[in-house]
Amino acid sequence: MTTEWTAEELRATGYRAVDLVVEHLTRLPGGPVFQPVPPGVVQTFEAEGVPRAGAPVAAVLEEFATRVEPWPFGNGHPRFFGWVNPPPHPLGVFAELLAAAMNPSVAGGNHAAVHVERQVVRWFAELAGFPPDATGLLVSGGSAATLTALAVARHRATPAPAPAPDSVSAPVRPTTATRAGAVGGDHAGAGAGSGGTLYVGVEGHVSIRKAARLLGIGDANVRVVASDGADRMSARALRAAIREDLRAGRAPLAVVATAGTVNTGAVDDIDAIAGVCAEFGVWLHVDAAYGGPAVLLLDGHGEARAGIARADSVGLDPHKWLYAPVGAGLVLLRDPAAARAAFSLVPDYLRTDGDVDGVGGPVWFSEIGFDQTRPFRALKVWMLLKHLGLDGYRARIEHDLAVAARIAERVAAAPELELLAHGLSVVCFRVRADDDTNRRVLRAVQLGGTAFLSGTTVGAAFALRACVVNPRSSPADADTLVAAVRHAWREQTAA
Ligand SMILES: Cc1ncc(COP(=O)(O)O)c(C=O)c1O
Q1: Which segments show compositional bias classed as Low complexity (predicted)?
Q2: What angle do CA 203, 207, 210 make, to 5 degrees?
């Protein structure tokens, strides 16, 4: 059994892997945007048992080259306009390699990865207009950011029991839910729940509801606030909903506003919503997972920026519009003490404060978030920010917005198409036909390999949805997408 790799072995494997990366990234634009994995290939994955004897490294890499690499998700392609999945910036790809080579656990401690992550959090806190002592951490994505933020909101709303005088173990706070006996069983998360009402917009991301279930808030305590007619949460409707709940004896827990809804790219009136939250002392979380970079970096979003600066927590995904490889989400938390109270189960006498220049380092990330062993997610974000700078990001995001505007223009100019919504870099439209026809058109485009977009619902109508988060997408690619939809529609009507 060989356990040590020589420098030559490391280099040979690294060079082959880099060749594979280069082949993948350079070949992508010339191939189909998407093609399903052929059934025969799927079968090989399903039939193969656990390897008993190992294979040489070169053989494993070749298997990757023949069985995995040829069937990607599609999001590296310039004509992939589905969901919110950009291609990775190449530097991000190599940052992943370097992070894996160091392979620290970024739970905490006084090692470089901790300080890189703290710097990244500080940079984003500054961009968001948060105070210098705000905290935060990188998480797997926007869903985890919302879950983390709402866990802190929920904990803050839960009064702590008085500790037993001679207790030496970490106090475990009962949640409002367990004390009230309303949740805790198998079905608790999805059911009644308790512990305050969560307010979400009609266009709020589904991950907010998932978080409500996981936290035991429960579906019944999620209140959907009406839109203002432009797919944005209405601050007036929010105020009315909170007032009504208070009159009925229901405690408001938190409001989740959105900066860039996934469906239509709408940006809520966040400053007005922050005003309502301040009026009633309710926690405001802003889900800026998708739109955060545009709102924070570009002109024209002063109102939303002002609201973000007043929020208690913000989620923003570097793996979306900052082109970092998956998974890189970020959550900012205004009140470091509240964050720590929610997640730190370390008794006070074991905390490592004051060991800033020793082994312990600053407050551990594992004390302000769920994970204990944590990957070095921050390196790719740090490297990309250093390489592109805010100016580089601004230019790329503006490019994406221009390509989206081009799609909208082309759609508006096509008599058989109807533009349904256009916000940030999202364009929703449909062919002037029933929902089933639109679904068939979508499938034909997706399987056709020329361009890729996803589907959604706008109002009551099924819609085709294009989202541009790829600086390699050109205006010509936008034209090709719209031409592919029109072609698929003609084929459908001819069939
Ligand atoms: C507005 C918004 N919030 C949250 C999410 C969930 O983020 P993730 O998929 O990274 O968990 C998404 C994903 O597209 C999103 O667009």
Answers
A1: 165-174
A2: 120
Q: Which amino acid is at 251?
A: A
Q: What one-character-per-residue DSSP string does 223-237 give? A: EEEPB-SSSSB-HHH
- Average pLDDT of the residues of the chain: 92
pLDDT above 50 (res 111): yes
Burial class of residue 97 in the structure, from the number of CB atoms within 10 Å of its CB (0-12 exposed, 13-18 middle, 19+ buried)? middle
CA distance 256 to 267: 12
Closest atom of ligand 1 relative to the 146 alpha carbon:
4
Q: For ligand 1, say whether the CB of 467 is within 6 Å of any of its atoms.
A: no
* Distance from C-alpha of 28 to C-alpha of 72, rounded to nearest angstrom: 9
Least confident segment among 71-80, 181-190, 263-272: 181-190
266 lines ligand 1 (CB under 6 A): no
pLDDT at 339 over 70: yes
Tally of CA atoms within 13 A in the half-sphere of 278 that contains its CB = 11
> Tokens at residue 347, please?
């008794």
What is d(CA 165, CA 278) in angstroms, rounded to the nearest whole number? 36
Other CB atoms within 10 A of residue 129 CB:
16
Would the CA dihedral through 158, 164, 165, 169 be positive or negative?
negative
Q: Is 143 in the pocket of ligand 1 (CB under 6 A)?
A: yes
Q: Is the CB of 141 under 6 A from ligand 1?
A: yes
Q: What is the distance between the alpha carbons of residues 316 and 216, in angstroms, rounded to a whole number?
A: 24
Indicate the Cα dihedral angle 242, 243, 246, 250, nearest 10°: -30
| Residue type (1 letter), 264 | T
The H-or-E segment that residue 330 falls in is strand 329-333
- Cα–Cα–Cα angle for 414, 420, 423, nearest 5°? 110
Residue 181, phi then psi, degrees to nearest 5: 75, 15
Q: CA 489, CA 482: separation in Å to the nearest integer?
A: 11
| Mean pLDDT in residue range 448-476 | 97
* CA pair distance 445, 451, nearest whole angstrom: 7
**Closest-CA residue to 100 (of 439, 390, 315, 379):** 379
| Whole-angstrom distance, CA of residue 467 vs CA of residue 95 | 26
| Cβ 290 under 6 angstroms from ligand 1 | yes
**Are 294 and 442 in contact, with CB atoms under 8 Å apart?**
no
144 vs 329: CA distance, rounded Å: 7
What's the gap in Å between 417 CA and the centre of ligand 1? Answer: 28
Among 485, 479, 476, which residue's Cα sits nearest to residue 418?
485
480 phi, psi to nearest 5 deg:
-65, -40
CA atoms within 13 A on the CB side of 13: 13
103: which 2 tokens? 């392979």
Pocket test for ligand 1, best of 290, 314, 321 (most atoms within 8 A of CB): 290
Q: What is the mean pLDDT of residues 331-356?
A: 83
Q: DSSP character for 334?
A: S
